[in-house]
Amino acid sequence: MLTLDDTNMFRPALDEVHGLAPAVRAMLSERFPDVQATVRGFHAAGEYGFMALGDQDTLVAELEAFAVARHRTFDHLLILGIGGSALGMRALLTALRPAAWNEWPADRRDGWPTVTILENVDPMTVAATLDRLDPRRTLVNVISKSGGTAETLAQYLIVRAWLEQAVGSAALRDHVVVTTDPERGALRALVREEGFTSFEVPPTVGGRFSVLTAVGLLPAALVGLDIRELVAGAADALRMAESDSLEENLPARWAGLQWQAQLSRAANIHVLMPYSDRLRDTAEWFRQLWAESLGKQHDRGGAEVFRGPTPLAAIGATDQHSQVQLFMEGPFDKAITFIRTADTMQMVPIPAANGEQRAASGDDPLHYLPGHTLGQLLDAEFLATREALRQKGRMNMTLTLDAVGPRQLGHLLMFFQLATGYAGVWYDVNPFDQPGVELGKDLTRAAMRGGAA
Fold first, then answer.
1. What is the total count of domains within the chain?
2. Are strands 197-200 and 176-180 parallel, antiparallel or unpaired?
3. Which among 7, 67, 238, 339 is least buried, having the fewest CB atoms inside 10 angstroms?
4. Does residue 423 share a domain with residue 290?
């Protein structure tokens, strides 16, 4: 289902100058038992809560029942959230629903709603969104792990007034569903006061690790995605991470190689480059996960270290015409991970432009394209880019998926979450806090209260 080729991270496969020394592989394997024991210890102590998300039968049944009961009732699903409360669902929707889903008529969507995600408080975007949607036919999912996110609460107050004007206060609860902490926060208080239907975010699962909780699974179910398969894919990745062999434990190996690329080769930029438009937003979701989890001023012991890689999202083949020039000839400060998919190879045949006979004779300047498919062209672009980077001494790895379906995507998302957890140990930082983000939130609240300029 998911494979990892790390050959091009090492000097022998590159130019014998750049890349990791071959001894790094043995060093990582030797250290891995301690890393695995540390992860298990943290998990037993209440951290790494996302590692429990491979077994959610009760929640999945509840979410499926909720979604089925509302099938064909609403034309639109409006999601209010930011960061981990929005990026995960965007990744799910882009990967598992056809492009331009919102433009399809309702019968082609089998009665499932369009989806709009408000993940910012830009007034132009919010105003245009509410002007476009019919509040009488809109279900609103308000999502905040903490229940106190200023942007989401502001969106909620605006959307609440918009709904009330159209459907009245009595019907408000039919149009709002809340996903938040089970006990704390302003949203939980609103659920108690207003009687909104709500689903819980497990307290031990941080927001950026929450895509495979109700945060992502509820809206996924509401657009008809197979959330059982998403969770099953996560369970597949979790089983992989049980291995004490670094060769078999792909999330731990990938994270360890990223750590060593930065530590020993100054590869401070970690690029994720899927060759699939369906995974474009998965790369954006990863960007938050990797940056917010590993960018830390202090290590686990409290020493000041200012540690962390910079994640960068790219997309193949589009960014061959923008960023790849930098990857190829710029500083040797990047480790690139490609994601290759195998399920589109035979899709969309390329026809001859000037007749079959001329094309066959080779007189057509486009003769190398007909007879192939767009899927084959995209994969050839990937292979060529990977080989060109290798020849230039640029470190890269390849993750290959046999397909992009719910189970494969659940596996991939959990793979990156596990890799982030392992990276926290390799880097010796806490991957689950975000003190820098919290400072910004505190200053925002102070500014809105008149306590700051």
1. 2
2. parallel
3. 7
4. yes
Does 54 fall in a domain? no
| Domain endpoint, select from 171, 201, 223 | 223
Q: What residues have CB less than 8 Å from 347, skipping those under 6 apart?
A: 373, 374, 375
Sign of CA dihedral 434, 327, 14, 275: positive
Q: How far apart are CA 95 and CA 77, in angstroms?
A: 18
3-state secondary structure (DSSP) of residue 2 = strand
Q: Each residue of 238-280: pLDDT tens digit? A: 999 999 999 999 999 999 999 999 999 999 999 999 999 999 9
Q: Cβ neighbours of residue 382 under 8 Å, at least 6 residues apart?
A: 275, 316, 317, 338, 340
Distance CA 4, CA 419 (A): 13
Q: What would the 3-class secondary structure string for 223-264 be?
A: CCCCHHHHHHHHHHHHHHCCCCCCCCCHHHHHHHHHHHHHHH
Contact 148, 140 (CB under 8 A): no
Q: Which amino acid is at 192?
A: R
Q: Are residues 170 and 276 in the same domain?
A: no
Residue 367 lies in a domain: yes
| Domain CATH code at residue 173 | 3.40.50.10490
Q: What residue has token string 């292979």?
A: 383
| 275 Cβ contact partners less than 8 Å away, ≥ 6 residues apart | 315, 316, 317, 338, 339, 340, 341, 378, 379, 381, 382
Helix (H) or strand (E) holding 327: helix 324-329
Q: What is the mean pLDDT of residues 188-216?
A: 96
Three-state DSSP class for residue 391? helix
Give residue 434's pLDDT.
80
Domain that holds residue 189: 72-223
Same domain assignment for residues 218 and 244: no
- 62: in domain: no
Residues with a known catalytic role: 292, 321, 441
CA-CA distance, 133 to 116, in Å (whole number)?
A: 9
pTM here?
0.95
Phi first, then psi, for residue 437 (nearest 5°) are: -65, -40
- Burial class (CB within 10 angstroms; exposed 0-12, middle 13-18, buried 19+) of 343: middle
CA pair distance 237, 422, nearest whole angstrom: 13
Residue 357 has pLDDT above 60, yes or no: no
206 and 236 both lie in a single domain:
no
